[in-house]
Amino acid sequence: MMISTRGRYALRVMIDLAEQSGEGYVPMKKVAERQGISLKYLEQILPALSKNNMIEGVHGKGGGYRLSRKPEEYTVGEILRLTEGELAPVACLETGAAPCSRKENCKTLSMWSGFFQLTNEYFDGITIADLVGSDRSGK
Questions:
Q1: What's the pLDDT score for residue 135?
Q2: Which of 2, 63, 82, 117 is the most exposed place for a label (fewest CB within 10 A)?
Q3: How far apart are CA 123 and CA 15, in angstroms?
Q4: No. of helices (H) and no. of strands (E), the chain
Q5: Could you say which DSSP state residue 26 is in?
Q6: Which residue from 29, 61, 34 is spatially nearest to 46, judged by alpha carbons?
Q7: Of 123, 121, 56, whose CA–CA distance to 84 is shortest?
Q8: pLDDT tens across 5-40, in order?
Q9: Is the pLDDT of residue 133 over 90?
């Protein structure tokens, strides 16, 4: 499983907004500058975050975006599932996948299922607040 640029940038936006949480609405131009991400690319990510009530925005003078909830109330898992879709390592584990004709005899299905479960549990156990508080070595 590979996390796309979209997913990584969405996490960076959420962390940046969490770090600025006392500032009110934060202009995306400032986030783009701090994060070294083009404003044009951020404008492609923001609608999904906004539509799913992760962030709230105000247009015009003094406008920008802010988190809709406290940083500790967001999990990395929910943000990645929003931007990446499911985190399924193989197509047969995706929601709504066509039944696999090999399912009954598949020697690797339990391995993939376990990996899928571990991935979701891992990312659901990390909050934006955890990432804001982590040091550069990733601890």
A1: 64
A2: 2
A3: 15
A4: 6, 2
A5: B
A6: 29
A7: 123
A8: 999 999 999 999 999 988 889 999 999 999 999 999
A9: no
CATH class of 5-86+128-133: mainly alpha
Kindly report the number of other CB atoms within 10 A of residue 131's CB atom.
18
Dihedral sign from CA coordinates of 43, 137, 80, 20: negative
Residue 64, beta-bridge partner list? 58
Residue for token digits 């969405």?
Answer: 10
Residue 132 identity (one-letter amino acid): V
**What is the residue extent of each domain of the chain?**
5-86+128-133
Residue 65: both structure tokens together: 């975006």
Q: Model pTM? A: 0.87
